[in-house]
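Hey, resending since the last one bounced:
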Amino acid sequence: MPTTLRWTRVVLILLVVGVTVGVLLGTGLVAALPRLVGGGAGVKNLEVTQPPAVNYQGPRTNIGYDVSFPQCGTPLPDTPGGFAIIGIHGGRPFKDHDCVEELAWWARQQSGYAVYINLEDLGVGDAAEMGRKIAADAIERMQAVYLPKATPVWLDVETDNVWRGSNERHRALIQAAATELTGAGHPVGVYSAPRLWWEITDGVDPGMPVWFAIGEADRQSAERACTGNGLGGRRPSMVQWIDRLPNGDLMDHDLLCPGVDPTGLLIPASARD
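The structure tokens again:
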């Protein structure tokens, strides 16, 4: 092969490689590779040590509902053989809602129940300290409506709330909230959806049970989701789907995944402090 032709090919190959690298860098794909390979590779996962939980053989049916301030003043679903999860915030940390006492009473009429609390990071101050404050406030709210100290708490991590600053900050806040709650005797889990969890935490393993949101769907879709990856590669313990009622309203339904031990995820309604 003539020398000139060889050098021409080398130059062309170098040009192609240079353009390709430029495109990858411009799209951010190269920077994202550690996250895309292995789910948060190179980023420290969350670690949660759970407290002793009240033993629970499980509801008579593995279907439940979750309700919060949007359901104030509306009829609540009747599921005496199933379970309930109630929100104790008015959509944001530290925010009241008017019917939390009513929801707590309703939850205790079911076979088992838990609560969820809203988390967010305003991007200012110490993130871990804010996580502890949110958790401490939630503990007071549970005590105010006479929920037992061992009531499981699910951490609601969604982009509907404010998440400013770095993924590292967000992870510190979530970790601190979980540690504060477990230290007070509350088992904890995390509620989110894959895209939201990636955006907020960089897709790490949450180190705790997963309550997995799939949006508007049906029970069959929820059952399929039980067999897949949840958040950070951790399989879901529960799956939430949103169903449209005959009157057009939306209702959050929840499925306790087959074979999952509900101890630590829900507390039996008969439990007392």
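The longest strand covers residues 112-118.

Sorry for the duplicate.
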